[in-house]
Design a protein that fits this description.
By secondary structure, the protein is of the alpha+beta class. It has helices at about 25-50, 60-70, 120-130, 135-145; strands spanning about 1-10, 15-20, 85-95, 95-105, 110-120, 130-135, 160-165, 170-175, 180-185.
């Protein structure tokens, strides 16, 4: 299940107004799939110093990954931006949410889960949010100014929400499926 909270939720000094919260079952399914690919990438990096010519390791990083392997830790290197190697695309359709996850090695998986959209108090979000993706107030304001944005279609199949976690933050883009136009609403807040 995916729960979409419409709220004003304060976390680490930032106000979030939309929160796509994944159930434990959905999170576990994505984690298991990602772990398989992380192991494939990690094993090849330890063996060859790269993954299919990508994510090149210098001698220091290669030794570090080999030491991690000896400790039983699987943590591949995905470049300087590091973070999560997956890109998440969410499209809400009546009663379900389609989640497409693309790993940086260009492998895909899809999860379709029931969706619930709630107008919730911040305390409810804080209490129930385990894992998910959030749109902040600044990003949402930028979205509302976009000429292709129609609030009444926010939770229909019209929009695809794309999230790319990185070590420096969360890149967010929204695509209007009717016009095929995309807006980057990322607020790096540096």
């Amino acid at each position: 299940m995916i729960t979409v909270y419409k709220t004003s939720y304060e976390l680490h000094g930032k106000t979030y107004v939309r929160c796509f919260s994944f159930s434990a079952e959905v999170s576990d399914q994505i984690d298991r799939w990602q772990a398989v690919w992380d192991k494939i990438v990690f094993d090849e990096q330890v063996k060859t110093g790269s993954f299919r010519g990508r994510f090149q390791l210098d001698d220091f990083m290669l030794q570090l990954l080999r030491a991690k392997k000896e400790q039983g830790i699987i943590r591949p290197y995905y470049g300087a931006s590091g973070g999560n190697p997956c890109l998440y695309k969410l499209q809400i359709k009546p009663s379900t949410c389609l989640i497409r996850v693309t790993h940086s090695v260009e492998e895909n998986t899809e999860v379709e889960a029931a969706v619930t959209i709630l107008q919730a108090a911040a305390s409810v979000v804080a209490q129930n949010h385990q894992r998910g993706l959030m749109i902040g107030e600044q990003e949402y304001c930028k979205l509302q100014q976009w000429r292709f944005w129609r609030p009444r279609d926010e939770f229909t199949g019209r929009y695809v929400y794309q999230f790319a976690p990185a070590s420096i933050g969360l890149e967010i883009q929204v695509t209007d499926t009717r016009s095929q136009e995309t807006i980057d609403i990322t607020d790096w807040n540096w």
